[in-house]
Amino acid sequence: MSGSNGAKENSHHKARTSPYPGSEVQRSHVPNEKVAWLVEWKDYNPVEYTAVSVLAGPRWADPQISESTFSPKFNEKDGHVERKSQNGLYEIENGRPRNPAGRTGLVGRGLLGRWGPNHAADPIITRWKRDRSGNKITHPISGKNILQFVAIKRKDCGEWAIPGGMVDPGEKISAALKREFGEEALNSLQKSSAEKRELEEQLQKLFSQEHLVIYKGYVDDPRNTDNAWMETEAVNYHDETGEIMDNLTLEAGDDAGKVKWVDINDKLKLYASHSQFIKLVAEKRDAHWSEDSETDCDGL
């Protein structure tokens, strides 16, 4: 992203797509040159939309701004709700937070529960691809070792993704990363007490080791609006020997339709900004990414 008031096309593309997810709502068209709030646009007329599921008032959602009992503390920790952005201060206009990446063609909250930032955690679990003898497999063209990550197929849109999810109020990011991976990739919610204890033991081994924070901040997401947006912390936990994950059976659960190990390369088509995160993991682990010797693929 280019600062707090503008956005490069590739970091603010999915947030302008229509129809809005789970609906037939069409956003007002926002051309690339009009995304930035710094560009004056008097005729800007975004569509207002907040999903019925959000307006029903579930525990994970804020009330409407107009409700007299609702006085959120934006840009700070508001009780258990984290309203600070990973990207610094955001503007408040007419009582509503303003998307730091620019215009989206839609106001309200869409499917998002919180006004302003909606915080997610994305655990990227990796291992080296190995042959039957246990040797690392190198790519024949790049000569680099092939890295694999655990991917889930989302039930809502059918796209492959990192098995992440929303951070609960008051929950630490580290706890959210572990919980989401357990729920979506290991089906922990459906396990017996004994199975859960065994699962927890193995997960603790994986999540207590050294890790890499791959990304923190705004995410170009199709659910984003002018007043509500996704932010995430993507963290890579790498099982160097593969022994920890050998003891865990992948099983889709919660929001996941399927789960599997996926080879990392530049051909991946993933949900939201997940391809960019995976590319960063490959770079940091010096793993195979592209068959081209020089590549400038943004992964979107």
UniProtKB/TrEMBL annotation:
Query: Residues annotated as region Disordered?
Result: 1-31
Query: Known catalysed reaction(s)?
Result: ADP-D-ribose + H2O = D-ribose 5-phosphate + AMP + 2 H(+)
Q: What is the protein named?
A: ADP-ribose pyrophosphatase, mitochondrial
A Pfam family assignment: NUDT9_N
Q: Supply the EC number(s).
A: 3.6.1.13
Q: Which residues form a coiled coil?
A: 182-209
What does the record give as the function of this protein?
Hydrolyzes ADP-ribose (ADPR) to AMP and ribose 5'-phosphate.
The reply to whether rRNA-binding figures as a keyword in the UniProt entry is no
Q: Which keywords does this Swiss-Prot/TrEMBL entry list? A: Coiled coil
Q: Record's InterPro entries? A: NUDIX_hydrolase-like_dom_sf (IPR015797), NUDIX_hydrolase_dom (IPR000086), NUDT9 (IPR039989)
Enzymatic class:
hydrolase
Protein family per UniProt: Belongs to the Nudix hydrolase family. NudF subfamily.
The molecular function terms in GO held by this entry are:
ADP-ribose diphosphatase activity
Species the sequence originates in = Equus caballus
Keyword Coiled coil attached: yes
Q: How does it assemble?
A: Monomer. Interacts with GLOD4.
Record-annotated Nudix hydrolase domain positions: 128-284
